[in-house]
Structures are given as C-alpha cells and as structure tokens.
C-alpha cells in the first residue's frame, strides 16, 4: 500500500525546462581588445607599484647607480655613504700635476735648460682635502630636483651608471708654495758680473730665479680643474751686477735723473727706497716690500722710525698666505691583531713668525743688501703617522654603545654625521679632547640638518623643544 503526501509550497519541484536561463552572453570569453585592455591595466598597476616601492625605498637613501669620484654610493644613506667615502678616498686620489721646466729659451738656458725637468706633485705631497660631505649632498639630490619627468630621467641615468659626482678639492696655498720652492731651489742660478783677468774677459751672466707665487697660482688652477696636467715653472732672468769699474760712472751719470724722478711722495726730494726682500731658502718662499709700501712704513726715510702698525699689517698678510696648520694622523685600532691602521696621514704645518719678520725687516733696512731671512717655522703634528710606535697604543681599554631607537630620521642623521667626524681621532699624550673642535661648526654647510633642539629659556626646569640646525647635538 502506498500513499503520496503533498509537498509544502516552498518545496515544490520545478522541472528544469521551467528554470530561468542565464542572461545572453554569460560565459562568453573576452575579446582580443578586452584582453589587451586588461593586460594594460595590470601592467600599469605593476609599474605604478614598482615605482612607488622604488621611491619609498630611496626615501632617505641615495638613488641607485650614483657614484662619487668613482665610488658607488647608490642605495646608501648619507651617513653610511660618507663613511664609505672616507674609507675609499682618504687620502684623496688627486690627479697628478706635473711641474715642468722646458729646454732652451732664456728661462731655462744654460745647463739648467739642457733637458726637460719635471717634478710630480701628487696627493702625498700636496695633501688635498676633498669636500666629501658636500659631494654626498650633491649625490643625494640626484633625482630629486626638477619636475616629475626630469626626476625620473635623472634617476634612470643614475641607474644606468651615467651619473658621477666629483667633490670639490682644496689644496693649501702654503703647501703648494713649499712644493714650488723645493723645485726652485734646484734651478736657481745667481747672476755673475763681468770679470777681467789679465787679457781674459768673462762676460756678465744673468741669473735665473723662479716666480713662486705665479707658479703656485697656476698649480692651484690646475688642481681645481680636477684633471691631470703639466704646469710650466714660471722663471725669469735677473740682471747681472755691474762691474766695479762701471759703478762710479754709472752712479754719477744717473744720480740726477733718479733723484728728480723719484722725489715726489718722499720727504726732502730723496730717491725712492730700494725694495726689501725676505726669503726662506728651504722652501724658496720670498716676499718683498716695494717703494710704495716702504713710503708708508718709513714715512720719514729713517729706518729708526717705522710705522709699526703699517708694517705689522703687511707682515700679517704674508703670514696668512704661507701659514697652514699641522694635520694629525687618524688611526683605527684592531683589537684582534693589536695593530694600528692609518686612516689619515699626518702632515707638518708651518707658520710665519710675525715678530721675527718685523725684526728682519728692521735689520734689512739698515744694510746695503736690503735682504733678510723669512722666519717660517715648521709645526710638527701631535700625532705623527711615521712615529706610531711612540704612542704606546697596544690594547683596547674600553668601548661603549649607545642606542637611540625611536628618534626622528633627522636626529639619527645628525648623530651619524657627528660620529663620523670622530672616527680615528687620537688624543695625544697630554692633549685635551674638544668635541666642538672635532665636529666643527654645527651648520648646513658642515653636513647637519634641522631637527628638534632643546632651548633653556629663563626657567631651567622648563625646557622647550624647537627646530634648529644640528638638533640633538647641541
């Protein structure tokens, strides 16, 4: 026996033929044009994502591919790039400059001019100082200046290795003058008067001297160009002294004209005073007081009464030209091998003793030769890289670590810049360490950026923070 129970209305079985079919076109494969549009959208999203990721990753980094003087710094932060450049470019590989004295001509005549003479002026001699911090700043701004397309193009060129930044290189004029003076000492030739020995007559011979200032100027210009090159040694002939027989007639014949032509500007119608020349023989550096300067220094024509203020002003100007400080060596100690690594070579400095120079001028004014010695004093470095054994550095005494997580990016950067300036600093026996002297000026020109600084105004218990250059260092 069987029976069929009716289904509730919600459970009615509907035949398939009565179900609504899919809309027309459902399940149709995309057309070729639609495929192209889809892939264009996917590619655009991928490129935009990659570009955004590229920009985000380089937010505080130098764009990839940038080089500084041939050293790749792309992908580095400014502080890490600066540390890398100090390791790779200290001492700075200066393009060699050659000083040359050519053959023949009146300048190099005689034995001195028989062949070309050359002196190589390399980095070890000129001790160049490269502005690595400025170069890092320029490298960081590659791809960050101009409009959007200009920035993208600059980043693309850098990525292909076609963007190199060259640091500004500075060489002390005093060091250059000393190098030129060393070469000048080899080529100088004194003049010789005519000599009569019986029936044998030896003609007068002009001398040969070097224009140290002009040659140094040419070398500095060549160094500033950043290219290797040859600079001619600027020389000139010096007139031979007159023979003893000719001196009386020459003096009597020229007494009247010289007195009348030189009288104006000097009391009593006296002839202009002869120039005074002071020379430092080891370096060949020389300075002269011409007639115009001597009129101001010796207004009455009496060497016993000098204008001390005018003379000191001139001599201090000389001192500024030839004086430069000594450079201490910077060292790194390897605790594993107990050895020292020289990060920066030492260099002796020099200074002009102003008081002794004034006394030398006084003495020269009272002599007929009108010459004297230029008292340039050598200044040895306190930390000499050639005498490391005398420092007694044999072990690592102590070390420390500081953490500053959670700090702003500018604060971290300023701390890294300041810490880099302390790398390798050696405090000599009996010396005093100065933090301010080591990091120098806290300024944008010295590599620091604006960050929060603490101002103590009136109430020391209520400090306030304000933005300022070199935040968290001062």
Question: What do these coordinates show?
Answer:
With 474 residues, this protein is of the alpha+beta class. Among the domains are: 264-387, Ubiquitin-like (UB roll) (Roll), CATH 3.10.20; 409-469, no CATH class. It has 13 helices and 21 strands. This is YoaR-like putative peptidoglycan binding domain-containing protein. Residues 230-279 are annotated as: Disordered. It comes from Caldilineaceae bacterium SB0661_bin_32. The chain crosses the membrane at residues 36-57.
Unreliable sequence segments: 105-113, 244-270
Helix count, DSSP H or I runs of 4 or more residues: 13
- Predict the CATH topology of the domain at 264-387: Ubiquitin-like (UB roll)
Strand content: 15-25%
State the major sheet: 3 strands, mixed
Architecture (CATH level 2) name of the domain at 264-387:
Roll
Which class of the domain at 264-387 in CATH terms?
Alpha Beta
Structural class of the secondary structure composition?
alpha+beta
User: How helical, in percent, are the residues?
Assistant: 25-40%
The count of strands amounts to 21
Radius of gyration: 38 Å
Shape: elongated
> Looking across the biggest beta sheet, what order are the strands in?
2-1-6
Mean pLDDT: 78
Question: What separation lies between the terminal Cα atoms?
Answer: 104 Å
Describe the protein's topology.
Elements (H helix, E strand, L loop, with lengths): L31 H26 L9 E2 L2 E2 L5 H11 L8 E5 L15 E5 L1 H4 L2 E2 L1 H9 L7 H12 L4 E2 L3 E2 L2 H15 L7 E3 L2 E3 L4 E4 L1 H14 L3 E4 L2 E4 L7 H17 L13 E5 L4 E5 L1 H7 L10 H15 L7 E5 L4 E6 L4 E4 L1 H12 L5 E3 L2 E4 L29 H13 L13 H5 L10 E6 L8 E6 L5
Parallel strand pairs: 1-6, 3-11, 13-18
Antiparallel strand pairs: 1-2, 3-4, 5-7, 8-9, 10-12, 13-14, 15-16, 17-19, 20-21
């Amino acid at each position: 026996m069987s029976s069929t129970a009716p289904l509730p209305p919600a459970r009615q079985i509907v035949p398939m033929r009565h179900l609504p079919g899919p809309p027309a076109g459902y399940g149709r494969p995309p057309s070729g044009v639609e495929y192209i549009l889809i892939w264009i959208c996917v590619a655009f999203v991928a490129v935009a994502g990659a570009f955004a990721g590229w920009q985000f990753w380089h937010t505080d980094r130098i764009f990839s591919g940038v080089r500084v003087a041939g050293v790749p710094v792309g992908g580095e932060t400014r502080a890490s790039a600066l540390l890398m450049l100090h390791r790779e470019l200290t001492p700075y590989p200066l393009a060699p400059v050659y000083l040359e004295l050519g053959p023949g001509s009146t300048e190099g005549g005689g034995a001195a001019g028989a062949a070309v003479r050359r002196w190589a002026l390399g980095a070890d001699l000129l001790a160049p100082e490269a502005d690595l911090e400025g170069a890092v700043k320029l490298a960081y701004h590659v791809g960050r200046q101009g409009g959007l397309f200009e920035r993208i193009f600059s980043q693309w060129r850098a990525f292909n290795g076609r963007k190199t930044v060259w640091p500004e290189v500075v060489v002390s004029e005093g060091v250059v003058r000393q190098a030129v003076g060393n070469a000048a000492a080899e080529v100088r030739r004194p003049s010789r008067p005519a000599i009569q020995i019986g029936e044998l007559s030896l003609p007068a011979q002009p001398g040969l001297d070097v224009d140290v200032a002009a040659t140094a100027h040419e070398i500095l210009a060549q160094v500033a160009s950043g290219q290797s090159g040859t600079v001619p040694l600027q020389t000139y002939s010096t007139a031979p002294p007159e023979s003893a027989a000719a001196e009386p007639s020459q003096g009597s014949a020229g007494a009247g004209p010289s007195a009348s032509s030189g009288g104006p500007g000097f009391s009593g119608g006296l002839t202009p005073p002869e120039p005074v020349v002071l020379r430092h023989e080891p370096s060949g550096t020389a300075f002269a007081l011409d007639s115009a300067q001597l009129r101001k220094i010796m207004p009455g024509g009496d060497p016993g009464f000098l204008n001390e203020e005018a003379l000191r002003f001139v001599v201090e100007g000389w001192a500024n030209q030839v004086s430069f400080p000594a450079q201490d060596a910077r060292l790194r100690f390897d605790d594993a091998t107990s050895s020292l690594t020289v990060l920066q070579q030492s260099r002796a400095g020099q200074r002009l003793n102003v008081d002794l120079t004034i006394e030398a001028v006084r003495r020269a004014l009272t002599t007929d030769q009108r010459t004297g010695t230029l008292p340039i004093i050598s200044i040895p470095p306190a930390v000499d890289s050639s005498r490391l054994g005398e420092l007694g550095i044999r072990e690592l005494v102590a070390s420390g670590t500081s953490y500053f997580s959670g700090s702003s990016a500018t604060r971290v950067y300023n701390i890294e810049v300041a810490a880099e300036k302390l790398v390798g600093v050696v405090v000599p026996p009996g010396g005093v360490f100065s933090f301010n002297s080591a990091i120098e000026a806290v300024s944008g020109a010295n590599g620091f950026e604006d960050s929060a600084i603490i101002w103590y105004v009136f109430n020391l218990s209520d400090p306030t923070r304000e933005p300022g250059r070199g935040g968290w260092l001062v």
